[in-house]
């Protein structure tokens, strides 16, 4: 979730579909006889059951998401909705690999045991995990060790929306359109990590020299903290000094933020950078307001704040908050056909939903590659993993900047929007439908011990 903000700057175009780069071919609804591959892939083919979760007429996938946690009820409901909406669309357009897509759901409940159980369940019942939004995964072994239909330990393919724990992130059968930049296989202790330089450059351009502020770091779990720290360190290396690094969990009351808001006022901090969920961010803002803070020039939040509920809940406190995104903002649906499709199909439009939608499109692109190469009966877990390995320049038809999932680096392009009383509006880069893309940098740290809060 926080790797969302580890990104970069110089303009890459966003707008229209590019089927060659993405592997998608959906400018027009596909004929049912094509199985969604844009040709006669299904004509004259007697479909077979080829894999666990692949029958002669259906492909079964599982979306595992944190929807039932008592700490943050319904947190990732949008992820489930998005994957179900994607499947409905694909089925209307002729299916995938000449089959209909069926979606199972599993509630991981922000719980490590439930997350592991979800993978065990998926191994037994589904072709792949698609759109995973589980923040407490600590054991990915059920993915890596999953037997295929032939009894071989091929592993269970997963196209995840988020993967925070390094064991999850480095699992060889897990792919994501935005990675963490950690070395794989995982190493202990200090390590070199790849992050984006651009968010730091953007913030520095707004704040000028000698900027210093408060880093509000999500500490829902050790994995969430560890995932935040590379970008925090990269921002500090870019000259955005830390007055304090403060932990923020969804269950923290406003009083938890009293000492951090006091630091904000004492140091006359020029910015606040938040990686926590927006309720935590608003608790901090309320406490800062109660202490009369007026020094902050830039309130910056990761994509968890890109939610209509943030503006509704925060009111005047939300207005002016800038949010860094790796996808085009929903307000620009008229500039991108794929974004318009998402907006039309998915009622819950937040970071959880869009990230899982993009993951589903990545899965779809890999399946289509398999069908193009081997036909609809060539669909196995092994062939899907090969398809995912070979995808380059994936941009979900312009929803994100081009990325190569097998490289496991952060998404390369950003957009910055600002909350207004009526929603959000773009502030950087200026042109609608465009991204800011640039170079990566590296930081050396042990993400499990780097947090100073």
Keywords summarizing the entry:
453 residues; alpha/beta; Rossmann fold; 2 domains; five-stranded parallel β-sheet; 13 helices; 16 strands; 19% strand; globular; disordered N terminus
Task: Characterize the structure shown.
The chain has helices spanning 19-22, 77-92, 112-125, 141-144, 166-169, 198-207, 222-237, 258-267, 278-290, 308-314, 337-345, 351-374, 381-390; strands at 11-13, 58-65, 100-107, 128-132, 158-160, 174-176, 191-196, 212-218, 241-248, 271-274, 298-301, 322-325, 413-420, 423-428, 434-437, 440-445. It is an alpha/beta fold and 453 residues long. It has two domains: 15-188 and 332-407, Rossmann fold; 191-327 and 413-445, Response regulator (Rossmann fold). The strands form three sheets. Strands 1, 8, 9, 10, 11, 12, 13, 14 and 15 form a nine-stranded mixed beta sheet that branches. Helix 2 (77-92) packs parallel to helix 12 (351-374), helix 8 (258-267) packs across helix 9 and helix 12 crosses helix 13.
């Amino acid at each position: 979730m926080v790797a969302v903000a580890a990104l970069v700057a110089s303009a890459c175009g966003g707008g229209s579909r590019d089927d060659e780069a993405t592997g998608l071919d959906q400018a027009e609804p596909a004929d049912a006889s094509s199985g969604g591959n844009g040709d006669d892939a299904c004509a004259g083919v007697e479909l077979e059951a080829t894999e666990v979760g692949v029958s002669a007429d259906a492909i079964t996938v599982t979306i595992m998401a944190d929807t039932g946690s008592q700490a943050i009820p319904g947190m990732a409901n949008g992820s489930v909705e998005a994957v179900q909406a994607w499947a409905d669309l694909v089925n209307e357009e002729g299916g995938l690999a000449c089959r209909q897509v069926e979606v199972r759901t599993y509630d991981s409940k922000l719980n490590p045991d439930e997350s592991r159980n979800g993978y065990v369940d998926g191994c037994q019942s589904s072709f792949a995990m698609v759109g995973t939004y589980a923040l407490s995964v600590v054991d990915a072994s059920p993915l890596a060790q999953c037997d295929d239909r032939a009894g071989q330990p091929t592993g269970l393919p997963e196209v995840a929306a988020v993967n925070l724990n390094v064991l999850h992130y480095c699992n060889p059968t897990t792919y994501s359109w935005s990675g963490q930049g950690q070395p794989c296989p995982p190493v202990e202790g200090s390590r070199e990590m790849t992050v984006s330089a651009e968010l730091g450059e953007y913030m520095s351009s707004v704040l000028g020299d000698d900027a210093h502020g408060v880093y509000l770091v999500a500490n829902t779990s050790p994995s969430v903290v560890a995932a935040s720290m590379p970008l925090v360190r990269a921002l500090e290396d870019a000259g955005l000094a830390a007055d304090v690094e403060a932990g923020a969990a969804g269950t923290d009351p406003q009083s938890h933020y009293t000492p951090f808001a006091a630091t904000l006022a004492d140091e006359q901090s020029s910015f606040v950078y938040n990686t926590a969920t927006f309720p935590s961010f608003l608790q901090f803002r309320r406490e800062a307001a109660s202490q009369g803070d007026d020094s902050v020039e830039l309130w910056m939040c990761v994509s968890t704040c890109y939610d209509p509920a943030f503006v509704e809940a925060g009111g005047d406190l939300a207005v002016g908050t800038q949010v860094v995104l790796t996808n085009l903002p929903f307000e620009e649906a008229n500039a991108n056909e794929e974004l318009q499709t998402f907006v039309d199909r998915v009622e819950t439009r937040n970071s959880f939903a869009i990230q899982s939608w993009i993951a589903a499109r990545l899965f779809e692109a890999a399946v289509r590659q398999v069908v193009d190469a081997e036909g609809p009966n060539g669909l196995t877990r092994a062939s899907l993993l090969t398809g995912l390995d070979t995808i380059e320049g994936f941009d979900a038809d312009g929803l994100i900047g081009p990325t190569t999932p097998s490289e496991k680096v952060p998404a390369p392009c950003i957009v910055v929007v600002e909350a207004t009383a009526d929603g959000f509006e773009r502030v950087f880069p200026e042109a609608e439908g465009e991204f800011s893309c640039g170079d990566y940098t590296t930081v050396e740290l042990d993400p499990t011990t780097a947090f100073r809060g």
